[in-house]
Amino acid sequence: MSAEVRKGLLSQLAHPIGHIITLVISTMLYLGMQYVMGQGSLRRDLLPETLVAISGYWFLQYASLVMVADLVEEKRGGTYSQSHMSPAPPWVIMLGRLVTASVMGLLVALVATLVPMLVADVTIPLRPEALLPYALVIINVLAFTFVLAAIAVSSPMVGALHSLFTSLVILLNGSMMPLGLYPDWLAVVARFLPTTLGVEATTKVLFEGQSLGDIWSDGTLPWLIAYTFALVLFGGWLFARNQRRAVRDGRLGQY
Fold first, then answer.
1. What whole-number distance in Å separates Cα of residue 235 and Cα of residue 153?
2. Domains of the chain by residue range
3. What span, in angstroms and rounded, lies between the C-alpha atoms of 142 and 50?
4. The whole model's pTM is what?
5. CA-to-CA distance for 185 and 58, rounded, in angstroms?
6. Which residue intervals define the domain ABC-2 type transporter transmembrane in the entry (predicted)?
7. Cα separation of 191 and 126, whole Å?
8. Can you spell out the DSSP letters for 103-134?
9. What's the pLDDT score for residue 90?
């Protein structure tokens, strides 16, 4: 696993210009969206909540992009199949890849959140209670990243699915405007996407002063835990299924 993490980080850090361009574009994209939503000005009353949401989105977008792009490239190059000559089980190798993806995703999310805070001169209040729901945001993002990686094992069309789902997330998880401003039916749909429930729970703690007991009693925290657990189980099952089929059909190194 450590060798896989080292290889992944060296590969990502070998081309820093790509990450710099990503950070510039992500920051401009977020600020541009907020200017549009504010009809030509930044709504500083709404920015802190949307910054929490956009941090979850950028973590999802970049971690899953690193994970999926590397996997597809290695499958096409044949090095993914060669990695299975190791006595380590396949899930260990995939967890190593997930560590690399999470490190890069967290770095991009951190910078892409701090820069708009400085530009707009806003702050996000810090409360220790918010660490739990935001940690669950990170876990369900990584679980969803694992789902996409499991699809990448068997299908080269995973790139289209990645673009579709991440586009839905940025539109509906609260990155453009707080979830409370959505129509009720759209808010229900949004909660089925990764990060949305976690962002909702985190913002309730940070901006509404609710405690963990409050978000437990209103059902937000239980649903978040259940959603994250289900996504973890689904990702593990789907990877095991697709991996077995690829080994059985001899498609580890090709689609």
1. 12
2. 2-249
3. 21
4. 0.87
5. 25
6. 13-207
7. 24
8. HHHHHHHHHHHHHHHHHHT------GGGHHHH
9. 79
